[in-house]
Design brief:
The protein has 293 residues and is an alpha/beta fold. The chain contains 11 helices and 8 strands. It has an 8-stranded parallel beta barrel, surrounded by 7 helices. About 3% of the residues have low confidence.
Length: 293
């Protein structure tokens, strides 16, 4: 057994790509990920097709998933109450994820709302999730800094974390390094301060980074007490709303290398994971992986 929760994020890997990945190929890839033993698969989103055309087929993908053969749970990203209502129709979905930004500029870019409007969305979605027996995961976007000149400090992140937990009963908060601004010292300090202050919150690390920095950031978060980690095979993807060029996701294979080297049981079936790595080369067009968005 392991107390780690590893979340694989094909949704985050796919969402910024211009070339549409066929629905059947998406489903085949996610089905392979479901065999790996991840705690959760962040598999799709219920957002406007105009905003994220790549994920307009999330419901169709869901219909092709082999959920009777896995213990992994499913998470879908939503940006407003309408998306939440669409996602909550599906019993197969365990978690809804919502990007709440501590940067006013990025909140507008990402969800076309102010932070205050975003708070109201969280309140409504949390109420809907509780009624439906689902859990809402709130991502604190720009949790490690932002490029827009908005005020940022560890105290701001702590204040929003406390408010979301105590006022709205959000119990899963993922600190999100949307643009790759984090360094090991900052990651360590944030988790060391937040986890003891809000012990009933499950804090996660959703880090975008260069591959060469991945293990150092994973180590910093783990040693500071974080036990929930998001990643994407080969670091594919990034947030198309964040900047002119994408900073890739945390490469899952680098996280696994760190945990194996540190003798931490990660619970992933490495044979099935190797097959997923090979399949990923067919899913993601390499010419797009380092281009501008």
């Amino acid at each position: 057994m392991t107390d780690l929760k590893l979340i694989e994020c094909p949704r985050d890997a796919m969402q910024g790509l211009k070339s549409f990945i066929p629905t059947e190929l998406k489903a085949r890839y996610i089905n392979q990920l479901l065999e790996c033993g991840f705690d959760t698969i962040d598999f799709g989103s219920f957002v406007s097709p105009k905003a994220i055309p790549q994920l307009k087929d999330t419901a169709e993908v869901l219909a092709q998933l082999k959920l009777d053969q896995t213990q992994s749970k499913l998470l879908a990203i939503v940006a407003n109450q309408r998306g939440a209502d669409d996602a909550l129709v599906f019993d197969e979905i365990d978690f809804l994820g919502y990007p709440f930004s501590v940067s006013e500029t990025f909140q507008q870019r990402n969800t076309n709302s102010s932070i205050e409007e975003s708070l109201k969305r969280v309140e409504g979605m949390q109420e809907s999730c509780l009624k439906a027996g689902k859990k809402l995961v709130v991502y604190l976007s720009m949790g490690f800094g932002n490029p827009y000149g908005d005020d940022w400090s560890p105290e701001i992140v702590a204040r929003w974390s406390e408010r979301l937990h105590k006022e709205m009963e959000i119990n899963i908060l993922a600190l999100s390094d949307t643009i790759g601004a984090a360094n090991p010292e900052l990651v360590s300090d944030l988790f060391k301060n937040l986890i003891p202050e809000l012990p009933q919150v499950e804090f996660g690390a959703h880090l975008h980074t260069l591959p060469e920095n991945a293990q150092a950031l994973t180590r910093a978060a783990y040693e500071a007490g974080c036990r929930r980690f998001d990643g994407a095979i080969k670091g594919f993807g990034g947030c198309p709303m964040a900047a002119n060029s994408l900073t890739g996701n945390m490469p899952t294979e680098e996280m696994l290398r760190y945990f194996e080297g540190a003798s931490v049981n990660h619970g992933v079936d490495m044979e099935n994971f190797s097959e997923a790595m090979q399949l990923a080369t067919n899913v993601f067009p390499m010419e797009e992986m380092h281009g501008d968005e």
